[in-house]
Amino acid sequence: MECPVCGTPAQSIDPATFDAKSIRCPSCGDYDISGNTWDLGLLNGLNSERRSKALAKARVGVPGHRRPLITSYTIDA
Questions:
Q1: Sheet of 20-25: strands edge to edge?
Q2: Nearest partner of 74 among 27, 24, 26, 20, judged by Cα
Q3: Fewer CB within a 10 Å sphere, N or C end of the chain?
Q4: What is the pLDDT of residues 7-66, one digit of tens each?
Q5: Is residue 3 part of a domain?
């Protein structure tokens, strides 16, 4: 698969225990995208800067052992 944030080859990994798409990217690291955000295609059509900002915002305040979660709230309008 292609990383939804940076576009490089990535892989889907076992999802977290909730409705999410979990991604492992050699450039972006491991992260989750909420099911709603994924299903609605909210990252589609965003430029790479906005997708990167959404992941950076998702990383803020996340303990090191948890994957950041991209949601509709982490995407700047």
A1: 11-13, 20-25, 29-34, 69-70
A2: 20
A3: C
A4: 999 999 986 667 889 999 999 999 999 999 999 999 998 999 999 999 999 999 787 778
A5: no
